[in-house]
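Input/output pair, single chain:
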Amino acid sequence: MTDEKRVPWRTSPEVWEKLKPLANQMRHQPTVAERHLWQQIRSKTLGVKFRRQHTIDRFIVDFYCAAASLIIEVDGTIHEYTQQEDAIRQEFLESLGLRVLRFTNEEVLQDTVLVLQRIADVLKEQLQS
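Output:
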């Protein structure tokens, strides 16, 4: 399987122009947990390429691996108040054939080894299917 698998959907140019500044800002001002996880998964350390703050349709996901059709979301305290919106967003992304893994900030910062093992396990599943 190639590192960048072709996907049947794209973010439209009109939506991309609107999301691009926000995605760039989020890349340059990540949360502590996002920064920490990025240091662990960047540069193909898990054998695949991840992108951060990647647009998919009208959403910006924290981390995306095209080769495994995998999205990783790191949820901070704001997500305690947006659970319904997160569920709708996740359902939409999964309808595109993507797998979504969610971790809390605390999991990423306090149980990094377990988070990385879970990601590695799901990568293996996704790449074998």
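The beta strands are 51-56, 59-65, 70-75, 99-104. Helices lie at 13-28, 32-41, 83-95, 105-110, 112-128.
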